[in-house]
Specification:
With 424 residues, the protein is α/β, with parallel strands linked by helices. The chain folds into 3 domains: 176 residues, HAD superfamily/HAD-like (Rossmann fold), CATH 3.40.50; 71 residues, Hypothetical Protein Ta0175, Chain: A, domain 2 (Alpha-Beta Complex), CATH 3.90.1070.10; 138 residues, Nuclear Transport Factor 2, Chain: A. The strands form 3 sheets. It has an 8-stranded mixed beta sheet with strand order 5-4-3-2-1-10-11-12, with helices on both faces. A 6-stranded mixed beta sheet has the order 14-13-18-17-16-15. A 4-stranded antiparallel beta sheet has the order 6-7-9-8, covered by helices on one side. Helix 1 packs antiparallel against helix 9. The chain is elongated, with a radius of gyration of 24 Å. Pathway: Glycan biosynthesis; sucrose biosynthesis; sucrose from D-fructose 6-phosphate and UDP-alpha-D-glucose: step 2/2. Keywords: Hydrolase, Magnesium. InterPro entries: HAD-like_sf, HAD-SF_hydro_IIB, HAD_sf, NTF2-like_dom_sf, SPP-like_dom, SPP_C, Sucrose_Phosphatase, Sucrose_phosphatase_pln/cyn.
């Protein structure tokens, strides 16, 4: 969050499974990729992305290896009981101290063992401030009442969250996704960075609290589960700031951005003609997002108006512009564009996708921009990532000129001797 010097234009706080990520109806992750390109194109430079998930950090990291997730500014895990910041996921120790109030995990373990209705979930789901069980839905009310009374008598103040039709989480009273969001908003306000707008996104019972925080817009994706829809019908149906989208998962989030007029909601992936794909704000990051989307479509053989765009792209490269391949080899930028010709359609019919992450542009001197990003490429189940740096120059009214592109393998990529299929 330190990269922002002023209040973020938009903060999106989204659940992951079946909200940002569609596990059942979108095998190629197209909805998520649509959101990704919209966020990197229009929002990354002045907004905040927060993931709020029931997963523990270990399982969150596993999901990142399976799906093309962007890197969030803040990650809230274990149903709002752990908050971490940035790429290195630095834990918020102050939040830990707040949750310690009237919480004794040992006593909670002891009392929950007395309920045969509760089946302990896997070890990865058990955290310092969260115990997770499975339970038959018909037993929830009775167990919740009795367990709460037992723990209250022993001086432990808890919150029970039922979600997903069978998940039963026991947390400190001060925990949960809603309390974590309220804490984050208060922290940002203290730093003079309270978001102009905040959008909460969810699909299940453990997301309910997100929609109770004042002055926050909310979207329940079209595939929201029964327990969340029941809560909505009983508590929030008349609230104009909460909607039930008619699109699934990340598509519903994009729909909500447009519905509440929170900013641009046309993803570059929804634009077929790249010459018509123009950003509202002058930002060289837009050029990078657009180029790598073109590159994906080029290799998949899906590009329309391709000769016109490649001619335009080549003309926007400086005659002496250089591309440095991650292998260290250097070549002319214009020659690199020409070389793309022989790769047209070579990935047609294959599971080939490209996405950009953490696209950040800095104007270093008047008329000069440096754009840094992670460029990901997936072929089948194999993924590679390059940390990419692009230097642009610009003159008023003349657009951006590509001066220099350098790529190095990221730490997450296993380097193989043959890197010839990495073009740019």
């Amino acid at each position: 969050m330190e990269r922002l010097t002023s209040p973020p234009r938009l903060m999106i706080v989204s659940d992951l499974d079946e909200t940002m990520v569609d596990h059942h109806k979108d095998p190629e992750n197209l909805s998520l990729l649509r959101f990704n390109s919209l966020w990197e194109d229009a929002y990354r430079h002045d907004s905040l992305l927060v993931f709020s998930t029931g997963r523990a950090q270990t399982m969150y990291k596993k999901l990142r290896k399976e799906k093309p997730l962007l890197t969030p500014d803040v990650i809230i895990t274990s149903v709002g009981t752990e908050i971490a910041y940035g790429n290195s996921m630095v834990l918020d120790d102050n939040w830990v101290e707040i949750l310690n109030n009237k919480w004794d995990r040992g006593i909670v373990e002891e009392e929950t063992r007395k309920f045969p209705e509760l089946t302990l979930q896997g070890e990865t789901e058990q955290r310092p401030h969260k115990l997770s069980f499975n339970i038959d839905k018909s037993k929830v009310k009775a167990v919740t009442k009795e367990l709460s009374q037992r723990l209250e008598k022993r001086g432990v103040d808890i919150k029970i969250i039922f979600s997903g039709g069978n998940a039963f989480d026991v947390l400190p009273q001060g925990g949960g996704k809603g309390q974590a969001l309220a804490y984050l908003l208060k922290k940002l306000k203290t730093e003079g960075k309270h978001p102009v707008n905040t959008l909460a996104c969810g699909d299940s019972g453990n997301d309910t609290e997100l929609f109770t925080i004042p002055n926050v817009y909310g979207v329940m994706v079209s595939n929201a589960q029964e327990e969340l829809l029941e809560w909505y019908a009983e508590n929030a149906k008349e609230n104009p700031n909460i909607i039930h989208a008619n699109e699934r998962c990340a598509g519903g989030i994009i729909q909500a951005i447009g519905h509440f007029k929170l900013g641009p909601n046309l993803s570059p992936r929804d634009v077929s003609d790249f010459l018509e794909c123009k950003a509202d704000n002058v930002n060289p990051g837009h050029e990078v997002v657009k180029f790598f989307l073109f590159y994906e479509r080029w290799r998949r053989g899906e590009v329309e108006n391709c000769e016109t765009y490649t001619a335009s792209l080549k003309a926007s490269c400086h005659p002496a512009g250089v591309f440095v391949h991650p292998s260290g080899a250097e070549k002319s930028l214009r020659d690199t564009i020409d070389e793309l010709g022989k790769y047209y359609g070579d990935m047609k019919g294959k599971k080939f996708r490209v996405w950009t992450d953490q696209v950040l542009a800095t104007d270093t001197t008047p008329g000069t921009w440096i754009v840094k990003l992670d460029k990901w490429e997936q072929i089948g189940d194999e993924r590679k990532c390059c940390t990419t740096t692009v230097k642009f120059t610009s003159k008023e009214g003349e657009g951006f000129v590509w001066e220099h592109v350098q790529q190095i393998w990221s730490e997450e990529t296993e380097i193989k001797k043959d890197d010839s299929n990495w073009i740019i």
